[in-house]
Amino acid sequence: MASDAIGSTPVGTTVDDNLIYKPRYIDIGINLADPIFRGVYHGKERHPDDLRAVVARAQEVGCQKLIVTGSDFTSSRHALDIAKEYPGIVYTTAGIHPCSSAIFSTSHVHHDAQEYTMPSDPDPEQPVSEDHDPDPEKTKEIISELRALIESARSTHPGALVAFGEFGLDYDRLHYCSRKVQLHSFAAQLDLVLSLTPQPPLFLHSRAAHRDFVGLLKAKFGDRLERLERGGVVHSFTGTAAEMRELADLGLHIGTNGCSFKTEENCAVVKEIPLDRLMLETDGPWCEIRPTHAGWRHLLEAKAKAEGIYAALNGNSNDSTLATSESTPASSVVPTPSITRTATPNPQQDASAPTQPKPAKPPKKPKKKEPEVPERWRTVKKREMG
Ligand SMILES: [Zn+2]
């Protein structure tokens, strides 16, 4: 991507454009198909549809592309619709999340895979019984539907579908789907990937299931994943440093979001991720770095640093064009707060928010103390998709 893709330096400026840091990000995992981005929270309309404003704010801070996660048939189709609305900005994935994989089971009552979405709020203390086997007929139907979805996306909107997934294993949430059926779902989808030409990159989910996860990948793609043609990312990583290194050594990328910054141990693992293996995601609207997370302080430090740099630039420069340059929005000086802002829906923001990047303004004096807990967490029931 060209370095001048964001804004432009005003005529007559004396600022060397090459010295101004302009972040260019791709949010590799954001759930823009979630109704929250349309103002609907748990079935109730709380504010006008502000998806356009959310995408505009992302671009404003340097997040040039967003990859919307498809985690079941419904969200994969919605994600593709959004990609059609924002060509060149929004891209998508398609797949069946482990928590949505009960559709592969003999116990599942829905027969129309297209209509299936993730069950809502099952009791975490009640894991799904391991007695039910995967259903071969349903599997055939689901895989053929998924293949049709992918082939149709590839032919009608070439380039929009950039990865297969999300899919994988989640043993922390066996109350959505049993281990046996998750393993079956993962294997069946990996077989589908192997049969696709060209083979898509993978958007993978692994939670508390590292051994089985790596074992199944190796069984399908070879011990060095040599049959995996276009790589993959293990998103929302929360594993150990040893697990991270094993995945990175296999050539996989590691996706980090707020879940990767919950504890000091999590933060230490992130620090060790080789830069050429690191990918950033918000997993918005669910997995931002929260005030209770160990990583929260890094956001505060980065914000203070950004404000300090900006104040210094303003205070020390006689060139007034620097302060008004469209190419340097204040929030883009350091990367972390920018990417975090990308998917933060603001119930107070309405759909009339500007769609063009705003010129940077000098930092204002803080008006009031920021709430410890962002406003939306008070009204929205917490859910962590990961
Ligand atoms: Zn996930």
UniProtKB/TrEMBL annotation:
Stretches with biased composition (Basic and acidic residues): 129-138, 369-386
Polar residues bias spans: 339-355
SUPFAM superfamilies: Metallo-dependent hydrolases
GO molecular function, one term: 3'-5'-DNA exonuclease activity
Any coiled-coil regions, as ranges: none
Disordered: annotated segments: 111-138, 320-386
GO cellular component: cytosol
InterPro entries: DNase_TatD-rel_CS, Metal_Hydrolase, TatD-like, TatD-type_Hydrolase
Keywords recorded for this protein, A-Z: Hydrolase, Metal-binding, Nuclease
Biased composition (Low complexity): 323-338
Family: Belongs to the metallo-dependent hydrolases superfamily. TatD-type hydrolase family.
Name of the molecule in the record: Uncharacterized protein
Annotated source species: Xylaria multiplex
Lineage of source species: Eukaryota, Fungi, Dikarya, Ascomycota, Pezizomycotina
